[in-house]
Specification:
The protein has one domain (38-318): Alpha/Beta hydrolase fold, catalytic domain (Rossmann fold, 3-Layer(aba) Sandwich). It starts with a helix and ends in an 8-residue tail after the last helix. The protein is 49% helix and 15% strand. It has helices at 3-39, 75-81, 83-87, 114-127, 140-151, 172-177, 185-191, 193-210, 224-227, 230-250, 275-284, 300-303, 305-318, and strands at residues 45-49, 52-59, 64-68, 92-96, 133-138, 156-162, 261-266, 288-293. An eight-stranded mixed sheet has the order 1-2-4-3-5-6-7-8, with helices on both faces. The chain contains 13 helices and eight strands. The protein is globular. By secondary structure, the chain is of the alpha/beta class.
Amino acid sequence: MTHKLQGRLSAGRLALGSAVALAALAYANHRVARQAEHDNPPQGRFLTIDGVRLHYVERGSGPALVLIHGNGSMVQDFGSSGLLELAARHHRVIVFDRPGFGHSNRPRSTIWSDRAQADLLGAALAQLQVGPAVVLGHSWGCSVAIALAQRHPQQVSGLVLASGYYYPTARPDVALMSGPAVPVLGDVARYTVSPLLGRLLWPALLKKLFGPRRVPAKFAGFPKELALRPSQIRASAADSALMIPDAAAACSSYSSLQVPVAILAGAQDRLIDPETQSARLHRDINQSSLHLIPGGGHMIQQTDTDAVMAAIDAVRELARPGISPA
């Protein structure tokens, strides 16, 4: 047997072994994902808007409040933080799983920019006869909240923007996070190695998101395995890929907002710089207020829930008819 033939046989065995290993990983990840969905069934109801099955949770009664979660998250973020229960004491609260997150699907036929997601939520709010409402966005959800206020102003009476990203910057980490959204190669990764890497990196990710604060015990109620399903990994990667171009497209229009706006950020946010993002947005929106939370990180809805609730109440008061923003 020649060396060339031996080399071909060895390469063939390696390729076959790799394919078997990837298939085994894909099967294991599929089983874990189905178990996660079984263990964490939908908490609310569903709407179908333009082919998207959208999951939402509704609690309480009173003035309307809409909560929009960030990238990689879902309705359980607001539930585990206690903000949903706190707000529902005096509000009709609606929380959506954005497309591809939680129990909402994400058709691949659409590029789910912040504007596309805002149009989807706008149609959902119209169907639910909600509005005008105070809308809170967290992180990536801030971009959707702003687009909702601009494109569907009749449904938004005020904005609370927490830990948002508003202006394009150099972010090498975004390229890495966007990988699973790449067709074919990204699909292979998200079904095989990405969930495993996500589990290994989860403690470091939480340290960055919550730091310098500790991860609160209540966050244990957040379903990690739902977030690490192949379908949600792709949605998160796609949102990451759109983050900078969406900010570039939107940043020149912020001054046109006509509703009261409360801007919140952790003063020590390790993911998004509060000075170049939140403080700059405050300078661009005349009728805005800025609240930098001392010692706060990115997840202020979890660690500083009362401060976020106070901002919601303040915007709700400013949004009442006959009251002008200061």
